[in-house]
Structure formats: C-alpha cells, structure tokens
Backbone:
C-alpha cells in the first residue's frame, strides 16, 4: 500500500455527487440492517429480561409454555413447602403460584389483541424484584382489582387508573400501573391469583415461580422436583424459560434482517461497482502514470479498493446516523411462543452500529474489487497518452 | 560500454491474419551522459520504441539492456521496481495527478524507496529548485500554467535520480516560450547533472538541443 491514501480521499471529494449517491445507497441498506437487528435485539431483551437467574419456574412436565401447563393446588403447595424455597422477612415462602390466561382487549388504535392476564400471589413482587408499582397502589387481596403493565397503558381501552376492564365476564378496576425494567411483564395485566382462578373457572395454576435460597443449587433443586413421584413437573431457571420463548421470533427477525438487507445490498453493490468503474475509466491516465512511475499493479488495486472502502465508510456512518434515532422507540408484536402481545423498544447498541459499518465495508470491498482489478490490469501504453 | 543497448528489436502487431510491423531489426546504443533526439513522422513508432525502453510494452523480438540489465526479460512485477529506480518518464500531457499538489506529485516516485520523510522532503525541494518552482510546491496542477506543469513533471522524473530520462514530445502541448523553457531545462539536466536523455519529438527546435539526432521512418532507424 504505497499509493498515498490522500490521493483517494481527494479523488472521492472531487466527485461529491456520485460519492454521496453511492454512499447514501449503502447507508440505507445499513439503516435497514441495523433497524431490523435492533428490533430483534429489543424483542429478545424484553423477553429474556423477564426472567431472573435466581428464580425457578415450574410448569407441568411436557409443557413448553405457561399456557399449556396446569398444576393442581396440592402440587403447588408441595413445591412451595420445599426447603430450598427462600423465605421472606415474615417467614412466608417467596413463591407465586400463578394463573396465566390470555384475554382479548380492545386496542385504542384499532382491533383487538391478546394480552396476558397473570394471577399472582401477594409475594410475586418480592419474588420478582424488578417489578414495581409506579403509579396508584397494589391490588387488595380479595378485591376484583388489577395492575396494568406500563407498556399497555394508553394502548388499550380502560387501562388508566380508576377505569375498568371487562374480561372473564367481570369488571376489574385498574388500581395501579407497574414497571418491570422494560421486560415483557410490562405487557401484562396482573391481579390476585385467588381472584383470577374462580373467574376463569379453573381449579389449577399454570406455573409456580419461586426464589431459590442459593441459586447455585439449581441443578439439585431441578433434580429433586422432577424426580418427586408426587409431582409431574419440569423446572427451569426463570431466565432460561423466557429466553427459550424468544428464540424462534428472534431467529426469524435476524434472518429477515440479513435476508432483506442482503437483497438490498446487492443493489448497493451494483451502485458501488458503477461508481468505481466510472472512476477507474475517468482516471485511466492517472493510473497509467502511477504504473509508469513504478507502482505495482497490486498497489493500484489496493488503492482503488481503498477508495471504494472510503465511500463505503461514509455510507456506513450515514446508515448509523439514520439508525440512531430509532433507539428506544417502542413497538409491539405477538410473541409466537405465548401468542400474546409484547411491547418492546428498538435497541441500537454500539456493537450493532459496528456491524453496520462492517456490513458497509463489505459492500465496498465487493463492489470495488472488479473495478480495482480493471485499474490494475489496464495497459499503460495507450492510457498515458489520452488527454 | 553503452548505457542503453538495443539489439535486433522488432515490434509487430498481429491483427487477425494481418501482420503490421512497426519496425524490425532496430539496433541502437546510447552512452551515459548522451542527449539523443529521436525524430520521425507520426505513426513511425517513436513512442512505441520509447515505451519498449521503459518496459511499458513488450517487443516481438530483440533485447534491450540498460546498465547491463535486460529489460526485455523482466516480469511485469520486476519491471515496476526497475522503472522506479532507473527511468524518469516525461509525458506530452504532463500527466500530473490533479488531486495532489506539485510537492506531492514529485514525491510519488520516492514513496517507492526507503527514504525517510525528511529525506524525501530534501529530494523534492531540490528537484523543485532545479526546475525553478520552489515557490509553487503547494500549488495544485490546475493552479499552474502548462509550462509550469511540465516542469513539475520533469521534477517528478528526476527526483529519484534515475539512470535514464525518457521524454515523449514534452513540448508538444506547450506554447513557444514555455517549450523553450522546458528544453533549456532538459539541456541543463544533461549539461550540469550529466543526465542521459532520450527525447522523442517532431519539433525541430527541440531536436536542435540534443547531441545527436536519429530518424525513425518506415520502420528504419537512421543516424
């Protein structure tokens, strides 16, 4: 690499319009790539952060999700009374046998969507330390009261404090809103499990979540629970349980990001090829001079590749610039694993930006190669005499 | 011993079944410090001969030796390295890189050497001084007149102190006064710095500056 980089940078600056047009094409591809990856990341983060590594989630053996599970009252009681379940300050087990149902709510925008209604024990907020009431108050035991996750507030009818929502043939009064550090819990409605159970005419819980005394004991706890002849359950770390629920959609979104951006990239690469061929053709006499002076064809090749990379870098940075404002924007989708609506934020992280720039550079490298090779291989003799 | 030895040199273009000879069986010796002018009508093959000497083109048959090294036997890669040390080339159209300053243009050949930045600076400033453009170091080609551009190109050709200077119609695109300045400069390079020069031209005033004139016409070289 002996031909000075300044030669390429200044050459790029001499044709700002075609440089910018090419860079813009790449920038848009990078934008789409980062946006879709940020979507996938955001979704994954919301689902994964739902679970804690200190908690165990128990469902019926063979159930992939809470919806398919059913645990009898006695099963739940057996689990809760196990010695490895942590106790709260008042000596009560830090456990929450939960009802998990999907209810259809009216969206303020249009149409209905399925939302998770979770019946929890009063200990649920101690089991899950990240869940906090941020407005209003906690529901009272024995009352038809509910808390609404903050992602749902304002997106569905009747979610403001003091309003009522009707499901399971009853009116439920919203007494508070809760936050859960951006996790999927924020897309749920929580009420008391003992209120939800009769309302949904069931005699079973869907899951039991409890805090372990010592999270390091998980393997032996799992072993104890799953081999207990009185129970037919499967136990997972709460974190892993929710992480598994995000796998399918995350993979689909990541695949779509790469597939769609990949197709767009082909167009952008052609743009780069075009621009670089034009540059090589217009500068044939200059290339001839460099070769005459004794610069090797390989130097010429790398010099023009470098030029394509300079344009690609501009494109990559433009793409990052376009993508940055997406960070934090809320959106929602149906989680295929639970069939419920989950709200989450786009996550534009530094490593995604870096990937976007690398993606752009790859486009530059591919688009620049053939023109650069033509530059390196061009016959010197005729070109030097062209005005 | 001659600095440049050309033996039985032929260049023949083959177009389909047609054989188009440019010249055949050319022999030429140039000794060190000579200023040889090569004249001839357009299309006589002067530039082709010059390109062959510079290793920019391959002959059909024959050999070219410069300081004993056989140019015609070198690979393309070796030729590039050889050219950077032994040949200073001056083009009719100056061929400066428009995005680089005069200084940066002249520095280009030195980027192929192992000289330090400071040493390169000294060489470039000396070359600029020789061509009388020390005050134009930071000018871009578009800010220079044609004559000044060609002088910068000459500075670029001499900056690495090559064995041989090859000039292809260096005054072909210049007005009379600029042409005289450039020729005077080339004569000085020969007289004062003992540079060996092979000048291709069809300008008689340019030819008069050389020690000897050869004519290339219809494929035959005559003295």
Residues:
């Amino acid at each position: 690499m002996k031909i000075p980089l300044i030669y390429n940078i200044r050459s790029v600056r001499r044709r700002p319009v075609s440089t910018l047009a090419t860079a813009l094409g790449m920038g848009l591809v990078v934008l789409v790539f980062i946006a879709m990856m940020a979507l996938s990341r955001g979704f994954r983060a919301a689902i994964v952060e739902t679970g804690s590594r200190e908690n165990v989630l128990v469902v019926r053996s063979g159930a992939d999700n809470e919806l398919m599970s059913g645990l009898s009252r006695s099963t739940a009681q057996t689990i809760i009374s196990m010695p490895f379940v942590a106790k709260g300050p008042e000596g009560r087990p830090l456990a929450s046998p939960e009802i998990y149902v999907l209810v259809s709510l009216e969206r303020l925008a249009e149409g209905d969507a399925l939302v998770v209604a979770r019946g929890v024990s009063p200990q649920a907020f101690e089991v899950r330390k990240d869940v906090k009431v941020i407005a209003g108050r906690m529901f009272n035991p024995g009352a038809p009261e509910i808390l609404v996750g903050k992602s749902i507030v304002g997106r569905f009818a009747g979610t403001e404090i003091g309003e009522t929502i009707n499901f399971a043939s009853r009116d439920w009064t919203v007494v508070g809103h809760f936050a859960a550090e951006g996790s999927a819990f924020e897309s749920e409605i929580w009420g008391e499990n003992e209120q939800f159970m009769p309302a949904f005419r069931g005699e079973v819980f869907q899951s039991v979540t409890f805090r372990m005394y010592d999270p390091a004991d998980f393997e032996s706890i799992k072993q104890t629970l799953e081999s207990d002849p009185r129970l037919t359950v499967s136990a997972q770390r709460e974190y892993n349980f929710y992480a598994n629920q995000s796998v399918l959609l995350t993979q689909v979104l990541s695949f779509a990001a790469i597939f769609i951006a990949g197709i767009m990239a082909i167009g952008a690469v052609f743009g780069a090829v075009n621009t670089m061929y034009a540059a090589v053709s217009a500068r044939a006499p200059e290339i001839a001079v460099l070769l005459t002076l004794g610069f090797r064809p390989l130097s010429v090749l790398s010099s023009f590749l470098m030029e394509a990379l300079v344009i690609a870098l501009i494109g990559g940075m433009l793409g990052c610039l376009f993508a940055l404002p997406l960070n934090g924007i809320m959106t929602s989708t149906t989680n295929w694993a639970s069939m419920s609506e989950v709200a989450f934020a786009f996550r534009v992280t530094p490593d995604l930006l870096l990937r976007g720039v690398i993606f752009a550079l790859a486009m530059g490298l591919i688009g620049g190669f053939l023109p650069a090779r033509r530059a390196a291989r061009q016959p010197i003799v005729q070109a030097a005499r062209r005005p | 011993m001659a600095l440049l030895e050309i033996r039985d040199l032929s260049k023949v273009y083959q177009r389909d079944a047609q054989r188009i000879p440019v010249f055949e069986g050319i022999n030429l010796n140039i000794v060190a410090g000579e200023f040889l002018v090569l004249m001839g009508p357009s299309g006589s093959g002067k530039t082709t001969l010059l390109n062959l000497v510079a290793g920019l083109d391959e002959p059909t048959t024959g050999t070219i030796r410069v300081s004993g090294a056989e140019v015609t036997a070198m690979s393309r890669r070796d030729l590039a390295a050889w050219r950077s040390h032994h040949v200073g080339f001056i083009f009719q159209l100056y061929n400066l890189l428009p995005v680089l300053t005069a200084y940066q243009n002249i520095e280009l050949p030195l980027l192929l050497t192992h000289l330090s930045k400071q040493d390169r600076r000294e060489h470039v400033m000396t070359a600029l001084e020789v061509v009388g453009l020390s005050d134009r170091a930071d000018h871009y080609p578009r800010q220079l007149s044609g004559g000044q551009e060609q002088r910068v190109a000459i500075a670029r050709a001499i900056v690495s102190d090559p064995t041989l200077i090859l000039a292809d119609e260096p005054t072909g695109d210049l007005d009379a006064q600029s042409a005289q300045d450039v020729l005077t400069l080339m004569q000085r390079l020969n007289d004062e710095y003992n540079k060996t020069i092979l000048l291709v031209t069809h300008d008689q005033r340019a030819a008069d500056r050389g020690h000897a004139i050869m004519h290339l016409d219809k494929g035959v070289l005559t003295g």
In short: The mean pLDDT of chain B is 92. The domain at 4-222 of chain B is CATH 3.40.50.300 (Rossmann fold).
